[in-house]
Amino acid sequence: MIEINGMAHVILTVSNFDEARAFYCELLPFLGLHKVYDGNNFVYHVGGRTALGIQRAGPDHEDERFVQNRVGLHHLCLRARSREDVDKVAAKLRTMGAKIDRGPLEGSWAPGYYYIVFEDPDGIRLEINHVPGKGLLAADPPISPSDDPDWHQNP
User: Fold this and answer.
1) Angle, helix 83-96 to helix 17-30, in steps of 10 degrees
2) How much is the pLDDT for 97?
3) pTM of the prediction?
4) 3.40.190.10, 3.30.540.10, 3.10.180.10, 2.130.10.10: which CATH number matches 74-155?
5) Do the beta carbons of residue 51 and residue 8 sit within 8 Å?
6) Which residues make up the CATH 3.10.180.10 domain(s) of the chain?
7) How would DSSP label each residue in 10-63?
8) Cα(112)–Cα(133) distance, rounded to whole angstroms?
């Protein structure tokens, strides 16, 4: 057995690259990620023990939008260090004119779970959350998604 050291990176494929690039190049530095590559239809930010890349979709998928319940990614959640940071992200998203699906608000998925869910220009759903302490690992035994019928359901 090993214990992983976080998630190294996620690459999102977007249909409207120019709009998505502008969105992420404004949001990600606010989240403490630094742009380390920008070119050849790809932009890559690194920070907070993770990285996020955005790449242009192939020409046969340029008119498509993200569908949350299709096979593949449901949503991407990044962890904040405090509830106040979640509130700061909410304020930033409002100034950017981003679509906020819900939040910031408390959820029942773990003690103290506080989050905001929003969408990028392609409709890819993202979440920023804060869970104090050990979160689900503090429960004995830990809660599972089947124990909570509201576990990340659509609004």
Assistant:
1) 150
2) 97
3) 0.85
4) 3.10.180.10
5) yes
6) 1-57, 74-155
7) EEEEESSHHHHHHHHHHHHHHTT-EEEEEETTEEEEEETTEEEEEEEPPGGGTT
8) 9
Digit-coded pLDDT (tens) for 64-81: 888 888 888 999 999 999
DSSP-assigned states of every residue in 53-113: EEEEPPGGGTT----TTSSS---EEEE-SSHHHHHHHHHHHHHHT-EEEEEEEE-SSSTT-
CATH 3.10.180.10 fits 1-57, yes or no: yes
pLDDT of residue 152: 52
Sheet holding 114-119, edge to edge: 76-79, 125-130, 114-119, 99-106
Cα–Cα distance measured from residue 42 to residue 49, given in angstroms and rounded to the nearest whole number: 20
Task: Report the percent of the chain where pLDDT is more than 90.
Answer: 70
Q: Give the mean pLDDT of 99-117.
A: 94
How many CB atoms are located within 10 Å of the residue 96 CB? 14
Q: How confident is the model at residue 50 (pLDDT cuts 50, 70, 90)?
A: very high
38 φ/ψ angles, rounded to the nearest 5 degrees: -150, 100
